[in-house]
Amino acid sequence: MPLWSSEGQEGSGPRETLQFSVVKAHTILFRDDGETPNNSRFPFLLYRSPVKLNGAADPAALFEVLFVANGCKPAWRNGIYNYNPFHAGTHEVLGIARGR
């Protein structure tokens, strides 16, 4: 069942529906590298292709809707830092909609 559909929304363009794939979370524990304080009890969670993009005109918007629906505040779009942007008091969520 779709979580969200842009059908009928002003300025929404073609219908885009957020649909999920059933995928297993891959868990990765990082050792302390002396630079980033990693949590030894809580793993990094990696979901490969959890959202069906189905040729969406703006696939990043589908991730933004999903994140907001789960309580994440919008932060930025377009680009991944080439350095460690560590934040002491937050958890980060990253969705990659396109790329090589």
Fold topology:
Layout: E1 19-20, E2 26-28, E3 44-46, E4 51-52, H1 59-69
Antiparallel strand pairs: 1-4, 2-3
Keywords:
100 residues; little secondary structure; two-stranded antiparallel ribbon; globular; disordered N terminus
Q: What does this protein look like?
A:
The protein is largely without helices or strands. The chain has one domain (1-100). It has one helix at residues 59-69; strands at 19-20, 26-28, 44-46, 51-52. The strands form two sheets. The chain has a two-stranded antiparallel sheet. The chain has a two-stranded antiparallel sheet with strand order 2-3. The longest helix is centred in the middle third of the chain and has 11 residues, at 59-69. The radius of gyration is 16 Å and the shape is globular. The relative contact order is 0.19.
Quickly count the helices.
Answer: 1
- Unreliable stretches (pLDDT < 50, length at least 5) are 1-15
Helix content: 10-25%
Radius of gyration: 16 Å
Q: Major sheet: size, sense and barrel closure?
A: 2 strands, antiparallel
Kindly estimate the percentage of residues that lie in beta strands according to DSSP. 5-15%
Kindly report the spatial arrangement of strands forming the biggest sheet: 1-4
β-strand number: 4
For the record, the count of structural domains works out to 1
What is the general shape?
Answer: globular
Distance between the termini: 29 Å
- Compute the average pLDDT: 75
Topology as a string of helices (H) and strands (E): EEEEH
Q: What multimeric state do the chains show? A: single chain
Task: Give the class from helix and strand content and strand pairing.
Answer: little secondary structure
